[in-house]
Design a protein that fits this description.
alpha+beta, Thiol Ester Dehydrase, Chain A, 2 domains, 4 helices, 7 strands, 30% helix
């Protein structure tokens, strides 16, 4: 699915969620949607999996009609040497939780994404993590927001030896609405290209 088609499907989903129509119009539109879906299934090949370009990523995939409305901000030189990574966007009613607010699941997905991006930039292999989120105030629909994640650092505490922690926050209209801590246990905090792995 290419980006323009995904954009239009997103617009259709938003229209379905945000508007109501009479029964006859709903039936007519449902028939039209079924026809379009059948055409797509007949004409399209199954996309390749494991796309390194992340076109189908569930959070930022431009060709994924059900991805969150987030865009990764470009990495600048200071980020590569150890700065903040970020993704920004604006959520609509398709991701509504409490009335007028972004659903916590959508927020958690955003934090998972920027934490993973920060870990990858620091040379960590993909692996499991525990993400703890503190909700400080409501995150509102229709207002631009920004997920930010700091570089991974060693964990602290009696049982954190060898753990790696990413601190992150969600900023909207100049205020931090949520904070997150993403922790990788020691056994999941391996780095790419370690000499003992024989990879250089």
């Amino acid at each position: 699915m290419e980006a323009p088609l995904a954009d239009r499907v997103r617009a259709l989903v938003l229209a379905v969620v945000a508007h109501e129509a009479d029964a006859a119009t709903t039936d007519e539109l449902a028939d039209a949607a079924e026809g379009l879906a059948s055409r797509m299934e007949a004409a399209a090949a199954e996309p390749p999996r494991g796309d390194p370009g992340s076109r189908l990523h569930p959070v930022t995939g431009v060709a994924n009609a059900f991805a969150a409305p987030l865009v990764d901000e470009p990495l600048v030189e200071e980020m590569v040497s150890g700065g903040t990574v970020a993704a920004s966007g604006t959520f609509t009613v398709t991701h509504e939780g409490p009335p007028g607010c972004v659903h916590g699941g959508a927020i958690a997905a955003g934090f998972e994404h920027v934490a993973e991006r920060a870990e990858t930039l620091a040379g960590l292999e993909p692996g499991p993590r525990t993400v703890t989120i503190r909700y400080r105030r409501p995150t509102l629909l229709g207002i631009p927001l920004r997920f930010e994640a700091d570089p991974p650092v060693p964990g602290t505490g009696d049982d954190a030896s060898g753990a790696v922690v990413v601190s992150a926050r969600l900023v909207q209209d100049g205020e931090v609405t949520c904070e997150a801590r993403a922790e990788r246990p020691p056994e999941a905090a391996t780095r790419r290209g370690r000499p003992e792995d024989g990879s250089g």
